[in-house]
Write a structure and sequence with these properties.
By secondary structure, the protein is an alpha/beta fold. It is 41% helix and 16% strand.
Length: 249
Amino acid sequence: MLLDNRNNGHVGNTLRDHLAAGSKLSVLSGLFTIYGFSALKKELSRIDGARLLLSGWEDSPLQALIGSDADLRLVNQLDQKRIARECAKWLASKAEVRSAKAAQNMFLVEDGSQGSFAVHGSSAFTPAGLGEVQSDTPLMNTGINEPETTKQLLCWFNSVWADAPKALDIKDELLEKLEFIAADQPGDFIYFLTLYNIFKDFLADIDEDSIIKTKTGFKDTGVLQGSCRVSRFFMQPFSVPVAPSRGSV
């Protein structure tokens, strides 16, 4: 079964058909976002448990947990705080989360409404990967319901999950990030975040010493320093974030 989120079936709809009360879900994904969770929230609330194996965790910025430009329609609904709280609650009660160094994407349902089922391919656990929004790039996935093949995929997933030196438990770290997204932030942080989103496409080319003349004194102002600080904050790899305080900008 081909799933390309366009003319040949959608990953999200297919998973909804197979996830049922009592199911178990194992996911290997290069990305995980709160809106990916939200797309399957109803089905995920009914399953017995889930295992999330996230690749590239160490190099992912905080913004990746919220979404990309492809998710702009969802982000503009301004409900990310609520969704982050719901996602954190679900993870805390039903999921285990580990990191992995495996460049694969896979969803594997055990004890589903139609038996075991797997989706393997290029779709990550994001709205674009599930087919909720248009992907920037073509996607191709294979839906697999053949018992022997799904059994082999499960055995392979279990071996990666159990690789203790490489599969590190990151559940607490993920919950901290979700709690930060769900929390109220000080006004100056929101201001600098707005500046970041306006100018983020140009930040990689900014060299404040060569672009801004020292004589103007602008590079010493709170506006520039705060904007650069928020830029570094959102583009840095996952770590416990600290919002700028009023006395530090």
